[in-house]
Amino acid sequence: MTRSTGFAETALPPRPASPWRDEMRATLRLSAPLVLINLAQHGLVASNAILLGRLGAEPVAAGALATSLYLLLFIGGIGLTSAVAPLVAEAAGRGRAGDEGAVRRTVRAGLWLGGLLGTVLMPLLWHTEALLAPLGQDPAVLREAGAYIRVLQWWMLPALAFMVLKGALAALQRPGPPLAVSLAALPLNIGLGAFFAFGPPDLGIVGVALGTVITELLALAALILVIGRDPVLQSHRMFGRLWRFDSEKLGRIVRVGAPMGVASVAEAGLFEAATIAMGTFGTVPLAAHAVTLQIAATCFMVPNGIGQAATVRVGRALGAGDDAGLRRAGAVAIGLGLAFMLACAVLQLAAPRMLIGLFLDAEAPGAAAVMPVAVGFLAFSALFAVSDGVQSVALGALRGLQDTTVPMVIALTGYWGIGVPLGATLAWGAGWGGQGIWAGFCAGLLAVSILLVTRWVRLSARV
Asked: Coiled-coil ranges per the record (predicted)?
């Protein structure tokens, strides 16, 4: 490149290379599609909440109970099978001949594990109404929740398989196929859910669940088809000998993934316990809680995607023996997650009614009573958003190191040793009600985020 002057052509000095800038670009290139995938997949749950909001406060409350229990089990399954991503990333980072076989065996074992988990967990969901009945919930809400989840439970098997394939493709730095499929699935889910709930079938709350099940089955079929026709991915032969049971790879996934699954259930269980506890205060606080959770979860999809990118970037650097690159990958990802969630917190504080209006029809039965309660909850959601984002990205970086046991202990301690007892004390002991539960969220997540970042700093310094 040259710059024209009045006397001569002067060459500009080359821009100095910056490993940090390169890492930032690489992380953004990988995390951007992963964030979009997460948003699209969460959009299935969020769009269901929007459709239920058009049915009234009682269906919103029923959907919140049913979905929270479903997600508690489903997130545990995702946590366990998420070990596929760091293991595939490490194999890809080594870059040696024969690692295509390691990728194939890991994916195959992950699909087997997802199938086994779904087979075990689905019968529990069938008895949702009986499981929640002793917990003081409104009987009418419980009946609708039971009907909703008996259909929604069939979402689990294809969804777990989709998540395994998505993790493997992210580790291979090919997130394009699951992104395309996820983006196409979101409007399909809305259309099918609206058709079955409000159209000629007029199935109400059950129709919303049916639309999601059909959408996920079609999404999985589409992703398998795309993988099979992709010339780059064909070299891994991901579906080769799929019938073979690989105990060695399955065992490694379980060893790495079991603590991840427990940590995921610990966090999801915190929100499930809060939802159940909120139901004891009545339908209005429960509906407000459901709306607030949808807003918080939507924001969380971004740092969650950045954390998944951190797992891949750290895992590939680990496989390549690039210690400095490994440390950069984690630091850049944590900084990006922190910055985004600070922006989310400001938005939640500045425009709560606008955000709530996205998930609650102001004209729906009972909505007028729900709005002010949800505004109060959203103020607490803004406070814990920053901690939630940081802990998610730090956890992703640690998973890239395949460090999962200590983070599991940290999660259990923060969520259940701090968050739940403090939330219960403030909710009932101090008379804060639902706001006390949200205050417990803030304290538990803050403790977890501090401990996970400290863990990352110490481990990455030793590599």
From this structure: none
